[in-house]
């Protein structure tokens, strides 16, 4: 039977906007020693601003239009941001044959032209020569009908409570914080340094994130637990693999929310340490 205080714990957590899907997760959460995060949408808002368009033979608005249309069927934070930056209504009838490639970007037909939009990995995969970029930021390279068409420089902002959230975790005895991201090294290192995260791995493919978590799982002692916090479709496998999966609920993907054991209703990273504190209190009452 489940001790009553577990229900009290789940109830208390839910009043804080922390949805715990079952009593066993409170126990595991209370033993968490390593917290691993995704970057985009978890530590950052996942709302990118366009900072500039470079190396393009097209007019800025024209390149942005191709990119926004190509991205119009995707729910990736970059896609949504490009559609927002474009700002005009999008006629999806102009778009077909969309193919998303996890950790790379996507290709789609726009007005019959094949548009590719994504990172350097995508350009390499498609055999398209691209312009390297010296700017610090996330870069969306665009190719049209197999020819390089320039890149869009975008940037995200760190969530309001992110640094405080990391500090609170350390204060509550979390031994290690790790950030995993598919984004560029310069962006990832900058974010990790600002937040005081112990370890950072960048330019990862979705499968690499699972591998990294498995590596961390084998290195730790059995009694210490590992939590992963993420928001995206690509995060679902890692959320399942971790001892505890925590998803951002407000802007998170359905796949992430489904795969998670705990959902943070308001996407506030400060709620991670709050949830851990609630779980420990609840466990102390039970035993
Ligand atoms: P993260 O680990 O930051 O959540 P993802 O694994 O979703 O990121 O994506 C990793 C990288 O792949 C992004 O930083 C971006 O460069 C590229 N990418 C992924 N999806 C898209 C897309 N729809 N449009 C453009 N680029 C994309
Ligand atoms: Mg993400």
UniProtKB/TrEMBL annotation:
Subcellular location, record wording: Cell membrane; Membrane
The family this protein is said to belong to: Belongs to the cation transport ATPase (P-type) (TC 3.A.3) family. Type IB subfamily.
Listed name of the protein: Cd(2+)-exporting ATPase
Species in which this protein is naturally found: Coprococcus hominis
Full-sequence range covered: 285 to 571 of 622
């Amino acid at each position: 039977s489940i001790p009553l205080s577990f229900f009290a714990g789940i109830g208390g957590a839910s009043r804080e906007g922390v949805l715990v899907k079952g009593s066993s997760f409170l126990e595991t959460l209370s033993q968490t020693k390593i917290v691993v995060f995704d970057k985009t949408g978890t530590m950052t808002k996942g709302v990118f601003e366009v900072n500039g368009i470079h190396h393009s033979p097209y007019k800025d608005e024209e390149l942005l239009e191709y990119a926004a249309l190509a991205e119009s069927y995707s729910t990736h934070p970059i896609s949504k941001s490009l559609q927002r930056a474009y700002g005009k209504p999008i006629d999806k009838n102009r778009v077909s044959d969309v193919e998303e490639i996890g950790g790379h970007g996507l290709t789609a037909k726009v007005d019959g032209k094949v548009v590719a939009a994504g990172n350097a990995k995508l350009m390499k995969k498609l055999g398209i020569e691209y312009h390297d970029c010296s700017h610090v930021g996330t870069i969306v390279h665009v190719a049209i009908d197999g020819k390089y068409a320039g890149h869009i420089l975008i940037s995200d902002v760190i969530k309001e409570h992110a640094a405080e959230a990391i500090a609170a975790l350390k204060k509550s005895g979390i031994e290690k914080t790790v950030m995993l991201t598919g984004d560029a090294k310069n962006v990832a290192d900058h974010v990790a340094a600002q937040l005081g995260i112990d370890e950072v791995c960048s330019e990862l493919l979705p499968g690499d994130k699972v591998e990294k978590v498995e590596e961390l799982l084998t290195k730790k002692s059995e009694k210490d637990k590992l939590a992963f916090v993420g928001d995206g479709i690509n995060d679902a496998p890692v959320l399942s693999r971790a001892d505890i999966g925590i998803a951002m609920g407000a802007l998170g993907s359905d796949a992430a929310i489904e795969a998670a054991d705990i959902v943070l209703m308001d996407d506030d990273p400060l709620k991670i340490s709050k949830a851990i504190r609630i779980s420990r209190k609840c466990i102390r009452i039970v035993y």
